[in-house]
Design goal:
alpha/beta; 6 helices; 27% strand; globular; three-stranded parallel sheet
């Protein structure tokens, strides 16, 4: 399968680029991501930091006019023939952002009331997965379902989203949030949990094991790739120098 694009699973692209807060709603990624290999669509969702402030600014069509690679919505579907990518807005699931935000203020415009928003979102995700005829079903969210790093498992997603993924035979769940690289295999389904959050502020030094099978964990900075054909899926995790730290593959009958 030809490389179709790049995914960014939230956590405020503006913060990581070092762009001042007052400029973030208008600062294009053009000046940073200039390599030829990066001239593809960037499929982006919001993370918890993106909700702290003007969340709607990153959804604005103005950004697309500044750089046509920028594709950012709260939840959406990308069909790539042999694969369906379903992007899920996970931040509203996390109850403490609503009840105990500490010193943060979250922009819940278009989200509140929480229960209604989540119920509709889960219904839409379930429907999209049931309708999918793609070989590979991939769900992307900012928060981890399973993680052995600082934030650990997101219990709201374990309880509400995970059963839908398992019932519908999802192959991969990809997330950011924890600032590390992880590959965890489900013990009771084919689902693979992939964390690629090593873009900044890594080396947390925290390890919190869970009940699923840990295939790989790297507490530092890096990134991951996923290559798909109709018969094979191959993933790899890299450090910042591009050295492969972990690779894994699976096949499906054609």
């Amino acid at each position: 399968m030809e490389h179709q694009g790049w995914m960014a699973a939230g956590a405020s692209v503006w913060v990581f680029l070092g762009i001042p807060r007052h400029q973030r709603s208008s600062a294009p990624v053009t000046n940073i991501y200039t390599a030829k290999s990066l001239q593809k669509p960037w499929y982006t969702i919001l993370g918890n930091h993106d909700y702290r402030g003007d969340a709607l600014a990153q959804l604005s069509p103005v950004l697309r006019k500044l750089d046509n690679r920028w594709i950012c919505m709260k939840s959406f579907l990308v069909n790539a023939d042999i694969a369906d990518f379903i992007f899920v807005d996970t931040t509203p699931f996390v109850l403490r952002y609503w009840n105990h935000p500490k010193n943060s203020k979250y922009d819940w415009r278009g989200v509140a009331p929480r229960k209604t928003y989540i119920a509709k979102l889960l219904k839409d995700v379930d429907a999209a997965l049931k309708q999918s005829r793609a070989t590979w079903k991939i769900v992307v969210g900012h928060h981890a379902i399973r993680s052995v790093s600082e934030h650990g498992d997101t219990q709201e997603l374990v309880q509400q989203l995970l059963p839908i993924l398992k019932t519908n035979g999802v192959d991969f769940y990809i997330n950011g949030h924890d600032h590390c690289l992880e590959h965890i295999s489900s013990r009771d389904s084919p689902l693979q949990y992939l964390t690629s959050g090593g873009g900044s502020k890594a080396w947390r030094g925290i390890f919190t094991p869970n009940s699923d099978r840990l295939e790989f964990f790297y507490d530092g900075q890096g990134f991951m790739s996923l290559k798909l054909t109709k018969a094979e899926a191959h993933l790899a995790f890299y450090d910042i120098a591009g050295t492969v730290l972990h690779s894994w593959g699976i096949t499906k009958p054609v």
